[in-house]
Amino acid sequence: MGVNEKPVSKGLPSSKQNHSANTTIRGVDSEPFFRAIFEQAAIGVAQVETMTGRFLRVNQHYCDILGYTREEMTRLTLQEITHPGDLHENLDHLERLQVGLIRDFSIEKRYIRKDGSVVWANLTVSPMWEAGETPTYHIAVVEDITRRKQTETDLLKFSRAVEQSISSVLITDANGRIEFVNPTFTRLSGYSMDEVLGKNPSISKSGQTSAQEYEKMWQIITSGKDWKGELRNRRKDGQLYWVSASISPIRDAAGAITHFLAIQEDITERKRLEQQLFRQNNYLSALHEISLGILGHLDVNELLQDLVTRACQVLQAQNGCIYLVNKSLDQLECMFGVGILKNYVGICFKPGEGIAGKVWATARPLIIEDYPSWEGRSSQIGSKDVRSVIGIPLVSEAQAIGVLVLAYGLDSGRVFSADEVALLERLANLASISIENARLFDETQRLFKTEQQRAAELAILVKASETMVKNIGLNELSRVIGDMVTDIFSTDATSILLLDSQKQVIQPLYEFDEGQYIENLQPFPLGQGLTSKVIQTRQPLLIGTAQEAAQYGAYYPPEAQAHNPSVTQSYLGVPIQVGDHILGVLAIHSYSQNAFDQNQTRLLSALSGTIGSAIENARLY
To answer: How many CB atoms lie within 10 A of CB 250?
Structure first.
């Protein structure tokens, strides 16, 4: 809670003040007059002994703010009810007031209410002694500003969310003039905020959306409705990009539209993939008759095998292999082979090396009629193995992604012709499309599995939140949380440990080990064991072996060792925090090595956030 400072000249009269304070003010007895002001003020007012911080008199509003009775307040000092984080500033101002450096002061500070909750207040302090006199008492005037502080916090969170959003955010006035853009907009459009303020969003028009479409959009949003659609915009440097846009009107309290909010997501890559897939599908349909066997595969390895096998069958070649480009290593690798060339699976070539390297470098077919006499042959392939060799590039988006190589044996007497080159190019084109499709399918499957996993994790978090919102005590809550974590992660052991920051010890709250609850575990000093490491770093700790745990200083309470002498092999501990305040550690254990991974780390960390709030609520309960 907070207090808004209200200036007070002298505070309540007392026997320490001059005689005029006890006389009348314009015919009114000052003592009842000031007492009425004191009692009826709409803000909290208190008379405080400056040297000790003890409350001498408080009005009812002051008591209402802090939740104490007047009698309780007179037994307290300001040090006892001030939030530890604000006490130093408060006392520093009082010290400066006593030595005469300041005549009064106002600060925003936090108080601790009787129920343990925090209240923000605006505090104004005025002395009840004259300059040069010994400090005696002061008047403290407080006003609750908790709601304002919460509003400021909410606005700050909203502002940060907008600033850090991966989506482009743009706000215009009712006439469509830009008033705000977030950093994502500037990165996406290439325009700085200064360049677009006051301008119309049409500066990003690409010319590929008709004026009628924009007019329809404007009619929709000015009528008070939301508009959603896809737009192709132009960056400042002229490059085009696609966005999925949502535009909504913003209304004032009277319901009038004052602004428009546009949220845009860059979908350029998605559109590129969609267009690429569309082109590929059209091409595949046209070549369906000759490609049915090849295009039936979505597994890259099966596709490569089928391609080489079918190409050899069509051309009656005994030998064949296929290379794929490894961009990260800048080399070709033989992925599959038949005949003599199957012995070269795993062999790699640099650009320009051997027939495969030359075809890769030029992205053009190459026929070698007499390979043994060819000066460009690679030493990695025996010159006496084959006679006539052909290399065909697998091209995607004007770049070679691989090379198809076929070869006739020394005793076949055959060489490759121009007609066979055309046929292989056709097959290679189909193979390139099929490979890209298979890779796209693999990527889609990976993303789908990721989304499934995230959905499952979300369901767990929702269930956990529903379980922990119940008003139950701390011990009962720990049993609910611990059992739930044990069930979710199928752990050998689960621990919930709370930090006593005053005593600098760690208190085990819940311990479940191989089907049994371990009760009455004793606290141990902060600094011992893996729990202390998590608390001190405020970061998750993932350990896969007992040796690694020992390196981190693993500590096993004697009671736990007596119950189960087995040594933890895998450990995953995450901090339980509420804001910047760390409450303790949630940990899971396994007697098998490397039992936990980053996915479980992410999920357990998410659970710990919900658990932190539940523990705070349980303490209040």
So the answer is: 13
